[in-house]
Request: fold
Amino acid sequence: MQLRMGSRLRGAWIPVASAAALTCVGCTSSALYHSSSPHSAPPLTSQRADKLSSDLAAGSEAPLRDALAVPSGQSLDPAAASQIAALAPIRFDAATFHKIDAQNATVIGTVTHPPAGQPATWTFTLTFAGGAWRVVDGGPTK
Reply:
């Protein structure tokens, strides 16, 4: 199982459960979310990593929206929060944080309840939006 982005709109992480993938409908897989800010984002702190973990595990829409790069007004699949929470907790290792560019990065996370047959170690893509690092996508580390 992998969290993958679709191709219509950027930033929404709307999972649809399947045996092979948890697909984000309405997202961009080939391009990362791009901020108009020319400034380089700060590193991921352990506090923000912990907050991402708790927001993804909450099982409700408001915290999920804080953790994900979701455009204002974009609706989420009602099952998204519970499907993502089923993977939780996800523990992000801030020491593995690696910037891709000024506003995008990757980080390794350990998924406590990965889908059957999938490893617990995943790589997550993050974007710095709205003053905080947010999850764009993720999937098993290769």
Observations:
- Confidence is low (pLDDT under 50) at residues 1-35.
- Residues 110 and 121 are 5 Å apart (CA to CA).
- The beta strands are 3-5, 22-24, 90-99, 104-111, 121-129, 132-140.
- The longest helix spans residues 46-57.
